[in-house]
Amino acid sequence: MSSPSDAGAEGPAEACRAPEACGERRGPGLDAAARERQLQRELLALKQQQQLQKQLLFAEFQKQHEHLTRQHEVQLQKHLKQQQEALAARRQQELEQQRQRERQEALEQQRLEQLHALRTKDKSRESERGTGGGGRRVRGVDGGLGGRHRVQGVGVSPG
Predict the structure, then answer these.
(1) 146 near 136, Cβ under 8 Å?
(2) Residue ranges of the alpha helices (H) in the chain?
(3) Distance (Å) of CA 119 to CA 53, 112, 116, 134
(4) Where are the domains of the chain?
(5) What is the pTM of this model?
(6) 94/101 Cα distance (integer angstroms)
(7) What CA–CA distances, in Å, run from 111 to 31, 115, 121, 143?
(8) Which SS3 state, helix, strand or coil, does residue 147 take?
(9) Which of 85, 93, 153, 156 is geometrically suited to a Cys-Cys bond with 131, CB 3.0 to 4.6 A?
(10) Among 49, 56, 19, which Cα is nearest to 37's?
(11) Measured between alpha carbons, how far is 118 from 113 in angstroms, rounded to an integer?
């Protein structure tokens, strides 16, 4: 067992290394100042830790923001591509419809021209039949004695 004289031989600094344990021997003024310095160091350490956490959170936020921005850009590009493809398909369809209308109009025009040509041909034939292809002899009332008389036709000289 150690005696009280052994503890005194070590001295106050040797016996008490922790400030909390030596508070009674140092006195009330020294204890409060040491405690204040300890609290200031802890507060500074907490502020530094908080600042580091803020930096880490901000870095994570920036990372996520950049990731979301890239995702959004990809989605926008995909949407734009889809819109361009839809527009191109719509234009192609409109172009094909225009071509179809033009073909229909050309066919209709061709039919009209053919119809006009046929009507012109028919009128020409009727005109030729109506004049008899030149002068036609008309029999007189007495049954054929008027052979010298001719009906005047278009483009026919009197005979």
Answers:
(1) no
(2) 4-10, 12-15, 23-26, 28-131
(3) 97, 10, 5, 22
(4) 17-93
(5) 0.41
(6) 10
(7) 117, 6, 15, 49
(8) coil
(9) 153
(10) 19
(11) 9
